[in-house]
């Protein structure tokens, strides 16, 4: 029997095999393709950067009404649990519920799946509680098969629905083939390495994104 994420019709959760893997770029591409609303519930690292929310807003050309502010925003470039500890803040799971939104939601995680949010919660637990199907962003090159298959195994153990994988970087057809085969998943689209990440490049790449209702039909079958 297949497990179906409870909120499969509300949007997707964008996670990755690592931090810095390209989740924000892929989120911007998805928002542009689906005219979605973006939400990064747990932002860390604001001491060093502006955060992912303004980046996605600008790259996807989103109306401000299509951007939901983070539930928590911490200064330190660490996992949410550690960054919150430095500010004496404990994440309240009651604030990590799906917000009302126009159109589909694209929700971006922090780092990969096994990233602590609270003593009793990791990002993978947040995904399970939100009930959204996953888009898994991966590195395209050597080493990605192991990271990707481990991530898929962690998702499957919890009955979390997958839409597919988005490799970022130079095309590697062998890795894509092995991920699809051994991970029993599909490559949704791919993102090449870009000289410059701009609204124009995001708009161009958004044309390669499958329609959301096609992905949702696959999940609900
Ligand atoms: N295809 C690409 N071409 C060129 N640069 C890229 C590409 N993908 C990502 N980058 C760069 O790599 C860095 C990390 O990417 P990104 O911010 O999307 O990672 P992330 O997975 O969202 O990380 P976090 O866990 O912090 O949210 C950024 O500086 C981004 O500009
Ligand atoms: C600050 C950074 N850009 C991310 N927001 C947080 C990534 C936490 C990763 C934790 C880990 O897996 O070691
Ligand atoms: Mg990001």
UniProtKB/TrEMBL annotation:
ATP binds at residues 20-25, 52, 108-111, 192-194. Signal peptide: none annotated. Pfam families: AAA_26. Substrate binds at residue 44. It comes from the Bacteria. The keyword ATP-binding applies. Mg(2+) binds at residues 24, 52, 108. It is found in: Cytoplasm. GO terms for biological process: biotin biosynthetic process. Pathway: Cofactor biosynthesis; biotin biosynthesis; biotin from 7,8-diaminononanoate: step 1/2. GO terms for molecular function: ATP binding; dethiobiotin synthase activity; magnesium ion binding. The keyword ATP-binding applies. It is an enzyme of class 6 (ligase). GO terms for cellular component: cytoplasm. SUPFAM superfamilies: P-loop containing nucleoside triphosphate hydrolases (SSF52540). Keywords: ATP-binding, Biotin biosynthesis, Cytoplasm, Ligase, Magnesium, Metal-binding, Nucleotide-binding. The active site is at residue 40. It catalyses: (7R,8S)-7,8-diammoniononanoate + CO2 + ATP = (4R,5S)-dethiobiotin + ADP + phosphate + 3 H(+). Its cofactor is Mg(2+). Homodimer. Belongs to the dethiobiotin synthetase family. Catalyzes a mechanistically unusual reaction, the ATP-dependent insertion of CO2 between the N7 and N8 nitrogen atoms of 7,8-diaminopelargonic acid (DAPA, also called 7,8-diammoniononanoate) to form a ureido ring. This is ATP-dependent dethiobiotin synthetase BioD.
């Amino acid at each position: 029997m297949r497990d179906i994420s409870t909120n499969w019709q509300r949007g997707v959760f964008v996670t990755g095999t690592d931090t810095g893997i390209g989740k924000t770029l892929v989120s911007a591409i998805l928002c542009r393709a689906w005219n979605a609303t973006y939400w990064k519930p747990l932002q860390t690292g604001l001491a060093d950067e502006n955060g992912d929310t303004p980046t996605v807003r600008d790259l996807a050309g989103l109306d401000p009404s299509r951007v939901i502010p983070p539930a928590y925003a911490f200064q330190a470039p660490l996992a949410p649990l550690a960054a919150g500890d430095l500010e004496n803040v404990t994440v309240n799971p009651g604030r990590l519920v799906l917000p009302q939104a126009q159109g589909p939601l694209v929700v971006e995680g922090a780092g990969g799946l096994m990233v602590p949010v609270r003593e009793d919660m990791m990002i993978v637990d947040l995904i399970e509680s939100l009930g959204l199907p996953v888009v898994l962003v991966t590195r395209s090159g050597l080493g990605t098969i192991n990271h990707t298959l481990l991530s898929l195994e962690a998702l499957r153990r919890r009955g979390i629905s997958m839409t597919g994988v988005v490799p970022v970087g130079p095309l590697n057809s062998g890795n894509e083939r092995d991920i699809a085969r051994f991970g029993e998943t599909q490559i949704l689209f791919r993102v090449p390495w870009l000289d410059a990440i701009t609204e124009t490049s995001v708009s161009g790449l958004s044309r390669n994104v499958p329609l959301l209702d096609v992905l949702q039909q696959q999940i609900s079958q």
